[in-house]
Recover the amino acids of this structure.
């Protein structure tokens, strides 16, 4: 279907990817119908602050919303919150909502996100055991987030560690249980993981690495987490951060190809040309990495998917960026550019003891990613290098006498 | 509520009521002022909310932190009055602030 035949766009999923798609379509001049359907009761909001400033109480709901609620009506975007899409009729190009209402589309965007994994343990449904994905999840845990309360975080990924950092700053007693032998095992190198382990330990977080949660104990409310070796860790609150699964139920019901997310091409099109998939639920080729299929869980990926879909529908071309991520823990700002998977060596610029350093990941001679801690120049410099397909030798990178900006300029 | 004027690169002006305590970036994004992307939502993580502070306001908006300055070093078309608007907090003292937007944030 050519771009100008698209009169009706339905977006399922009103998170950042879905919300940005609607906004970018309108700002790009799309005049047809836009319907944005979300299960949550809220208009599109930012998820990253949930485990940071929102949890800390520094950031209210008004600041969490990506745009004020009234903007959608002003821009003639039909925002259906608290609404579940239950069926896609591909042949008839219709979406059925819970309750039976059906809507027709010319282009459908699946921005269904991901569902946090739940603990499959006895007691996992007790009060005080929380997931960490939605504003409602955080609202539910906040009353118990008080100085002196005992928090057990299960899972030492970025979300869990960010929660642990906020909790320590609020004076909670924090234990982090991780089944792997180090934190952040999936997302960074052993060296950088070791740095964060040391920082959290210094801040008073207790770690149980290689720990196997076996049971959540309590009567009406959680009292402790029991490990497989019999150890019991007292808990007033349990926070679960053990990863997410892409939400592909609707896509699978209508036989779209899904394999670690809904599989798309570089234009975010699924194997049905009228249906796009973007954000956490989608698995698309990443241009900067030779078109490798990736399912990324990040703001950058949500925004980029929205940009690509809006551009494609409008018959334009989107400008792509190197994937990037960030995490805030205590006074540490970790900024990540690129994808480190498959690196064969790491070179450090600066030293960890200064709490400002960057880890440059190489595959052969090619720079593929950087983890920059309190080093924004290294983050932005590496992001620019990877974007242009340039690289810099480890000797040059490690030379602190040369400013990052100069290194980037000299690389081409 | 303090008023802030954003002037797009094209010259188009937007006058916005900015709530006290929010940032100059947030007020722009919430009123759909084009030209401020603010991809990271104000975490000082992306450098896509670059603005030029009108020279007469430079004293009141204060100085960029070293982190912000490092980010700005990599923005496009940086001038001495460049700031990341997510790092400028709105207050009564900034009522009437004028900022100009660069040609592009990327």
């Amino acid at each position: 279907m050519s771009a100008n035949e698209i009169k009706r766009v339905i977006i399922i999923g009103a998170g950042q990817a879905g919300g940005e798609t609607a906004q970018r379509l309108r700002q790009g001049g799309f005049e047809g119908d836009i319907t944005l359907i979300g299960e949550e009761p809220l208009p599109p909001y930012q998820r990253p602050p949930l485990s940071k400033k929102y949890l800390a109480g520094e950031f209210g709901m008004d600041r969490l919303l990506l745009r004020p609620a009234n903007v959608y009506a002003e821009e003639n975007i039909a925002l259906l919150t608290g609404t579940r899409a239950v069926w896609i009729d591909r042949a008839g190009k219709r979406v059925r909502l819970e309750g039976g209402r059906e809507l027709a589309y010319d282009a459908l965007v699946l921005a269904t996100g991901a569902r946090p994994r739940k603990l499959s343990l006895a007691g996992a449904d007790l009060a005080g055991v929380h997931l960490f994905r939605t504003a409602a999840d955080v609202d539910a845990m906040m009353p118990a987030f008080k100085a002196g309360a005992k928090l057990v975080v299960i899972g030492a990924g970025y979300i869990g560690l960010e929660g642990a950092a906020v909790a320590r700053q609020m004076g909670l007693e924090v234990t982090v249980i991780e089944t792997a032998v180090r934190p952040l095992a999936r997302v960074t190198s052993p060296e950088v993981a070791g740095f964060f382990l040391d920082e959290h330990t210094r801040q008073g977080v207790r770690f149980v690495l290689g720990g196997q949660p076996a049971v959540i104990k309590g009567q009406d409310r959680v009292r402790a987490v029991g490990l497989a070796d019999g150890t019991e860790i007292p808990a007033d609150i349990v926070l679960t951060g053990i990863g997410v699964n892409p939400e592909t139920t609707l896509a699978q019901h209508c036989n779209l190809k899904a394999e670690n997310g809904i599989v798309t091409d570089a234009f975010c099109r699924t194997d049905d040309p009228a249906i796009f998939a973007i954000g956490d639920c989608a698995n698309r080729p990443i241009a900067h990495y030779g078109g490798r299929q990736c399912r990324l869980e990040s703001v950058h990926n949500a925004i980029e998917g929205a940009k690509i879909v809006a551009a494609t529908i409008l018959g334009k071309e989107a400008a792509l960026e190197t994937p990037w991520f960030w995490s805030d823990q205590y006074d540490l700002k970790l900024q990540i550019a690129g994808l480190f998977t498959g690196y064969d060596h790491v070179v450090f610029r600066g030293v960890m003891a200064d709490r400002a350093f960057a880890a440059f990941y190489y595959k052969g001679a090619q720079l593929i990613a950087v983890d920059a801690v309190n080093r924004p120049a290294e983050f932005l410099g590496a992001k620019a290098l990877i974007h242009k397909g340039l690289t810099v030798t480890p000797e040059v990178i490690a030379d602190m006498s040369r400013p990052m900006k100069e290194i980037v300029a000299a690389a081409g | 509520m303090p008023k802030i004027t954003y002037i797009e690169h094209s010259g188009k002006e937007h006058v916005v009521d900015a709530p006290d305590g929010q940032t100059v970036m947030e007020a722009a994004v919430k009123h759909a002022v084009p030209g401020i992307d603010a991809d990271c939502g104000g975490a000082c993580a992306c450098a896509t909310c670059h603005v030029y502070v009108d020279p007469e306001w430079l004293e009141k908006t204060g100085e960029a932190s070293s982190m912000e300055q490092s980010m700005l070093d990599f923005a496009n078309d940086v001038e001495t009055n460049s700031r990341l608007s997510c790092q400028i907090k709105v207050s009564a003292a900034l009522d009437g602030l004028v900022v100009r937007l660069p040609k592009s944030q990327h």
About this structure: The interface with chain B takes residues 23, 27, 46, 48-49, 52, 62-63, 65-68, 71, 75, 299-300, 303, 319, 321, 324, 326, 328, 333, 335, 374-377, 380-381, 384, 405, 408 of chain A (CB under 8 Å). The first strand of chain A starts at residue 8 and ends at 12. The mean pLDDT of chain A is 96. DSSP finds eleven helices and 26 strands in chain A.
